[in-house]
């Protein structure tokens, strides 16, 4: 594995990348981040935009992303209560990665076999 030395401290890049992957691992996190990279969403909008995700799972994934400093949650003292989610400046640093993945998919996506069945629960009305 590649190791780098910074100020007399050896860094194992494999371990560091494992930590980075862990931030975005999870069934829905990348999809949530991709959507929030586009614009600010309310909870219900996110749920509708991600077919098959449950309310419980969306809540759990958003909480983890917020705890890791990748998503911010703003609560507006209104009736009814309004909550908005957006990516943080730290998460905006992933923008080039998202753009690279989009470019890769545009070029190679048609060559990837479609998998049968959607993930998670079926949306209502299906």
UniProtKB/TrEMBL annotation:
It comes from Bradyrhizobium cajani. This is Transcriptional regulator. GO terms for molecular function: DNA binding. InterPro entries: HTH_HxlR (IPR002577), WH-like_DNA-bd_sf (IPR036388), WH_DNA-bd_sf (IPR036390). PROSITE patterns: HTH_HXLR. The lineage of its organism: Bacteria, Pseudomonadati, Pseudomonadota, Alphaproteobacteria, Hyphomicrobiales. SUPFAM superfamilies: Winged helix' DNA-binding domain (SSF46785). It comes from the Bacteria. Residues 15-113 form the HTH hxlR-type domain.
């Amino acid at each position: 594995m590649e190791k780098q030395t910074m100020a007399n401290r050896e860094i194992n890049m494999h371990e560091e990348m494992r930590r980075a992957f862990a931030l975005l691992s999870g069934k829905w996190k990348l999809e949530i981040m991709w959507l929030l990279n586009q614009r600010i969403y309310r909870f219900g909008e996110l749920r509708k935009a991600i077919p098959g995700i449950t309310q419980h799972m969306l809540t759990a994934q958003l909480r983890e992303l917020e705890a890791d400093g990748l998503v911010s949650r703003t609560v507006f003292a209104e009736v009814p209560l309004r909550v908005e989610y957006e990516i943080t400046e730290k998460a905006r640093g992933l923008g080039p990665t998202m753009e690279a993945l989009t470019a890769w998919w545009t070029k190679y996506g048609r060559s990837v076999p479609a998998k049968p069945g959607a993930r998670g629960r079926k949306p209502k009305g299906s």
